[in-house]
Design a protein that fits this description.
With 411 residues, the protein is an alpha+beta fold. Helices cover 33% and strands 19% of the residues. The protein has eleven helices and 18 strands.
């Protein structure tokens, strides 16, 4: 029997968990101010007069304001030099002030008025006036809904509209020490939950039962529940993001659990694959090939190396073990990894087309999954971050197919 898999009741496993969030604090006012200053410096250097931040992650990242996008325009105007302004429906102004971290004036519109016209009028009032001959550059948050961006476009004669990705990605993909500390703790929490989930498996158990346990286990370690959860057994493990129907666990099944939580806005995302019972030769071969590919990707992740080269290293290793080539199955059908932070998938990406050089503060998943349709799949997903000395794991990779959590190895 695989070490650490099965043998424990749900009550026993939950009782062994405790809150792990002690000593962790949310990002504070000083860091939000530093983020705005960094964005403004970039904007000044690249000729961007103003940036619109729509409700969502980037608005939260730069201002601390948590507000979800809807059919009503809510956001912020950040000038290359000058004070921040929020824009929102008039009836939401009081609530907006209640949620503000960085205090700023709110430019408000009534329901019958155009928020897009107000946006352009506000730019002009702040000294960024339309100029058909030399249009000021206005960067629009890339996560902005089309109807908002199009509404701005229709009112923005005399301006040049540009994707704000160059600003938001430049700032957000280089994590601060506090951001890394928050992600470290969130990942520690989820790894502990993964270990607890493995311990409660028993024959005949449904994937939905495991998902419910994982949600409660995340609450026990201090999260609000699972940010997401994928539990797969047997042949279903060959599908990277799962299948429609629940599966029932059988002896000899490959188990794949991919889950995460949030801590003060920062996300964990860890996958473990192992066998319920005793691994056979085929499962062992594929699992070891997956571990080797993950190690090859990590070894390639050196400062200054393009992100895409990390993906290439994983695929070369897989090809040497008989998988692929490229995206061909059986093999790796998706990128090797993604950036992570306040969004579960964010820039940059470990995919051949991404030539962004690796730099300190960047954080990535490392998950070169092997999918074998009709049989099973194996994904080992851990994350690493770049330091001045090179890559460093957030969590120790899975030890072996026989001892996935290294329980016997630690003795």
């Amino acid at each position: 029997m695989t070490i650490g898999v099965g043998g424990c009741s749900q009550a026993e496993a939950l009782a062994a968990l405790q809150n792990m969030t002690g000593g962790m604090t949310a990002v504070g006012l000083d860091e939000y101010r530093e983020r705005i200053a960094r964005a403004q410096c970039y904007m000044q250097q690249h000729g961007i007069a103003a940036m619109y931040l729509n409700a969502g992650t980037s608005l939260h990242y730069f201002t601390g304001l948590k507000w979800y996008a809807s059919e009503r325009m809510v956001g912020a105007i950040l000038l290359a030099s000058g004070e921040l302004r929020f824009i929102a429906p008039w009836f939401e102004v009081g609530t907006l002030h209640d949620y503000m971290v960085l205090p700023a004036e709110v430019c408000a519109w009534h329901e019958h008025e155009s928020p897009y016209a107000l946006f352009v009028a506000t730019l002009a009032s702040l000294g960024v006036a339309a100029n058909p001959e030399r249009p000021p550059v206005i960067a629009i948050d890339e996560a902005t809904a089309f109807f908002v961006a199009d509404g701005i476009r229709q009112c923005a004669a005399g301006y040049e509209l540009r994707n704000a990705r160059e600003v938001t990605a430049h700032c957000r993909m280089h994590k601060s020490a506090q951001e890394i500390a928050l992600m470290q703790r969130a990942k520690d929490m989820t790894l502990r939950v993964q270990q607890a989930a493995a311990s409660i498996l028993h024959e005949g158990m449904l994937t939905t039962e495991v998902e419910a346990f994982i949600a409660e286990a995340h609450r026990r370690v201090g999260a609000s529940g699972s940010y997401f959860c994928i539990v797969l057994f047997g042949e279903a493990t060959a599908y990277p993001h799962g299948v429609k129907n629940a599966q029932r666990l059988k002896a000899g099944d490959m188990v794949l659990i991919d889950t995460g939580c949030t801590l003060h806005g920062y996300i964990s995302d860890i996958t473990r694959s192992y066998v319920f019972g005793t691994p056979d030769a085929r499962q062992r071969q594929v699992w070891n090939a997956e571990k080797a590919a993950q190690a090859a990707a990590f070894a390639a992740a050196q400062l200054g190396v393009p992100c895409g080269d990390v993906d290439s290293a994983a695929r070369r290793q897989l090809a040497s073990d008989g998988f692929g080539p490229g995206y061909a199955l059986p093999g790796l059908p998706h990128r090797t990894g993604h950036g992570i932070g306040m969004d579960i998938h964010e820039w940059p990406y470990l995919v051949s087309s991404d030539r962004t050089p690796l730099a300190p503060g960047m954080c990535f998943s490392n998950e070169p999954m092997i999918c074998i349709p009709g049989e099973f799949g194996v994904r080992l997903e851990d994350h690493f971050y770049m330091t001045a000395q090179g890559p460093r794991w957030f969590t120790t990779p899975s030890h072996s197919i026989d001892d996935p959590f290294g329980l016997e190895a630690a003795c």
